[in-house]
Amino acid sequence: MTAPPSSGFAPRYREVIGERGRLCVGIDPHAELLEEWGLPVSIDGLSRFADICVEALGPVAAVIKPQVAFFEVFGSGGFAVLEKVIRGAQAAGALVLADAKRGDIGSTMQAYATAWLGDASPLCSDAVTVSPYLGFGSLAPAVEAARATERGVFVLARTSNPEGARIQLADADGRAVGQTVVDAAAVENADGSATVGLVVGATRAHGLDLGALQGPILSPGLGAQGATPADLAEVFADADTAWLLPASSRGVLRSGPAIGELRSACERTRDEVESALR
């Protein structure tokens, strides 16, 4: 029998989803969006973009997902802004999922885990995305760090881009590679902690059996990538949608820079998701 989720990431995730609904909003400050908002493509523009997003989204979004690459491109100044986003969003009550997609082996993976999940790190988030394509076992330092600090990792299983299928659906001893990731995550979650979530795109049928996961499923692709809230129930018909976390970035962010309009776009998308999954 599966242990009840008395500790770990599960209670925190369920609490915020219960209060705010199932939606993850990405903060993706790419150059084109900065320009659309009338902001310079500079540290000053990035900082203003980040401040608006945190003020608008922090109090209403269940999960905020900063895309690390768009901060990293600005160097050390960009990371300073990212640290501000993480702290600000958490202070407003949202969980922060750092979309870093880290993956390596041994001490290097341990360093990534410490950077994104360690209590003392200025980048410490509630969860981080990781890549399993050096082998699921290579993620052990991140899984162990997440378990120790009651945080989470979201492992790429079936991504929203069409190129992913050649690897993720390839045969591995009679199972798709992506399914081996799902099955390994389910083993980690057997204690009820929901430490290991998955990334499974909403843009097409995924071909995975998600029934045993017992953890969150980040589902990118809403809005700009073409998926709609109505698609979710069909794409995830065999999954426990109580764990589903649909994600939208540009679909919400294009409503900025006015704080009220940005917040309304988040709330409207969340309500559409909840209605579709009810």
From TrEMBL:
UniProt xrefs under PROSITE patterns: OMPDECASE
Keyword Methyltransferase (UniProt): no
Catalytic activity reported: orotidine 5'-phosphate + H(+) = UMP + CO2
Associated pathway: Pyrimidine metabolism; UMP biosynthesis via de novo pathway; UMP from orotate: step 2/2
Molecular function via GO: orotidine-5'-phosphate decarboxylase activity
Any single biological process term in GO: 'de novo' pyrimidine nucleobase biosynthetic process
PANTHER family: OROTIDINE 5'-PHOSPHATE DECARBOXYLASE
Protein name as annotated: Orotidine 5'-phosphate decarboxylase
